[in-house]
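Contributing: when you submit paired examples, paste them exactly as shown. First protein:
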Amino acid sequence: MNAFPNPRDPFLNDRIHMVESQLRARGIRDERVLAAMLRVPRHEFVQPQQQQEAYDDRPLIIGEQQTISQPYMVATQLEAARIQPADVVLEIGTGSGYQTALLAELAAEVFSVERFPSLAGMAQWRIAHLHYSNVVIVVGDGSVGYPPGAPYDAVVVSAASPRVPPALVEQLREGGRLLVPVGDSEQQVLHRVTREGGSVHDQALFPCKFVPLIGLQGFR
């Protein structure tokens, strides 16, 4: 976990404004999530020409026709995942590595799966540059999870699936939470799937819109 933000960071005031006006003012209450989003420099995870837009509440293109999600959606999903400091977390869709860094702030260990080698490589560089040592990034089909790191306390999927992928449910430990957008390419609903007492509970939370999850248990 990183220390408090560098006061010489030229984007610090933008990040404070993002946390207070876009997140706290709109109902995000998890102080650990808010603190992580204050610490992680989102401008480090976008293209150089986009840095002045890094703290706007909207997605930005990061390459390979993928996006970095809007800050409010990231915060909402992380809050719903209820991540604890001792948790082992699986992220599906590393993308730029921004949410990966946030998860590294919140959890003990993070495994992240990205299907584009170019994005995985750049995310790995950024994660190392920011001195996170509790992250493993792999290239693969995120729809089938990452069995070598299982079981997970939380699985956070940053892409939309036509259904809840069974492989991701199977990799949850008792009490584990899976956050996954479910729907078609135009409309989705974020689901929280929880494994408790030998049963699986599926709760639909709210509408959302993500890029598609491509893979054996996602979109083909």
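Second protein:
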Amino acid sequence: MRSKGVAFLIAVLAISAAGTALAEPGAVMRLPTLDATTLDGRRVRSADLSSRPTLVSFFFATCVPCIREAPILTAFAARHPEFSVLAITPDPPDVARDYVARRRFSWPVVADARAFIAATGVRGYPTWLLVAKDGRILARDTGLDEAAMQEPAIGLAELERWVADRTK
């Protein structure tokens, strides 16, 4: 914007409390159509996720925060059968299989999912999406803070609180 030969720059800054995330402008509000094969050869489709809310975790194998939060996600999946948990990675299947075996994931993982990741608007890792049974994205976040990842019990409590606050 210019006024009398002076240039003005307008910037917008969004601030959120630790552990919360603001929706990005133009953020995807519904989970894009999913039709993929998991690492164990099962087909997973959007309709398969409609029986209960789903926590979708986006990771890649060399992402340090992704590695640190893996035991917390494992604990959440074991403790909350009322939720589906799904992991999505851009990694090729062989890399993802090794990661999943080392981290002892017990939920479906879709590898080589760059197109789906792009369709969701995920731009950083880790990222979580909390998805309602009807496919609406209830929340998105960039994972746990450093302190929560240091102690799995604290991280699990933080994740459970995050989910509970968004599914009320």
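If you have annotations for the second protein, write them as plain sentences, like these:
The two ends are 43 Å apart (CA to CA).
Residues 30-166 form a domain with the Glutaredoxin fold (CATH 3.40.30.10).
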